[in-house]
Amino acid sequence: MKDNIRQTFGDLLVDALRDTGRDVSTVTKEVRDYAVEQMEQLAEAVGQPGFGLAVTAAADNVAMRLGISTVEVADRADARIWGIIAGAIGIGARAIG
Amino acid sequence: MKNIIITISLCLLAACAGTRARNTALRPVLLAIWPRVSVDVERGIADAQARNAITPGIAADLRERAAGIARDLPTGVRDLGLPSEWSLLEPYGTRGVQILLDKGELTPATARPVFQRLLNFRDSLDELAGGEPRMPAGMSTGTYRWRDSNGRVFEAKHAVGEPVYEANPLSRLGVKL
After folding, report:
1. Exposure letters B76-87 (e unless 16+ CB within 10 A, then b)
2. What confidence score (pLDDT) does residue B175 get?
3. Is B31's CB within 8 Å of A65's CB?
4. Is some CB atom of chain B closer than 8 A to the CB atom of A65?
5. CA separation for the pair B83, B149 (Å, rounded)
6. Is the CB of residue A41 less than 8 Å away from at least one CB of chain B?
7. Quick one: which H or E segment has residue A53?
8. B148 to each of A46, A56, A66, B90, B169, how far by Cα in Å?
9. What confidence tier does A82 reach under pLDDT thresholds 50, 70, 90?
10. Which of B81, B139, B140, B159 has the least C-beta neighbours within 10 A?
11. DSSP single-letter state for residue B25
């Protein structure tokens, strides 16, 4: 079950980024795994103080990993990207938490 | 001769592609994240100053360095110097997050990604500086560890295994954090 959620989460994240018009052809397995790892860490924190702050930080972490892997995650600071990543991570964490 | 020119051209193209990628992908991400990271840094500086762990002069210097990152990050004119500037500020960011942990506004589980953000910010500045993460003198490698107010030890593995700065580089100058 959890493996399915992990797989689905990774697919949804990539699809959501693609929907913003970004080139996602170079979203590496490393970045995708990192996003899943962030989500799984958050699953341990659902309902705890600072969960919202943690989701934001996790989204920032994934965005930086995307940036380092030189994906065109944003040609400007695009709040939609963070919204997508943070939303996906937060929902995924609650799903497996 | 022709082969040499082609080789040099390819190298220049590759270098330009790397620079473009850093400017179009990573820089906007860091610009968007900096306000959130700098809040943690400022909290740590204010706390250190309140505890007289640093003098007002050092606090002012640290704030000037933070302002310098905010000023220079968008332009890229000082990318090579940003990692060393951040190495002085990062311990205060760590302290800033630790304060939230001690106050109960974060738990060890919710603090983890916030601590990791500091590490990723450093990696990203290293990347902006154009190369592999470098280990300045006096820095150590390993896993990032911290304690909560009950003395329990937690750790965050560094995302890709790069070096981790020591807890307080200013300790070499006799400054407590």
Report:
1. eeebeebbebbb
2. 45
3. no
4. yes
5. 30
6. yes
7. helix A51-68
8. 19, 21, 30, 18, 21
9. low
10. B140
11. I
Q: Which residue has the tokens 């100053």?
A: B49
What is residue A64's predicted lDDT score, i.e. its pLDDT? 86
Overall domain count for chain B: 1
Output the pTM of the full model: 0.71
DSSP string for A2-50: HHHHHHHHHHHHHHHHHHTT---TT--HHHHHHHHHHHHHHHTTTTSTT
Average of per-residue pLDDT values in chain A: 74
**Core vs surface per residue B125-150: b (16+ CB within 10 A) or e:** bbbbbeeebeeeeeeeeeebebebee
Average pLDDT along chain B = 72
**Percentage with pLDDT > 90 across chain A:** 13
Residue B1 above 70 pLDDT? no
Å from B38 to nearest chain A CA? 13
Give the domain extent around B51.
Answer: 2-173
Q: Which of B35, B43, B42 is nearest to B100 (CA)?
A: B43
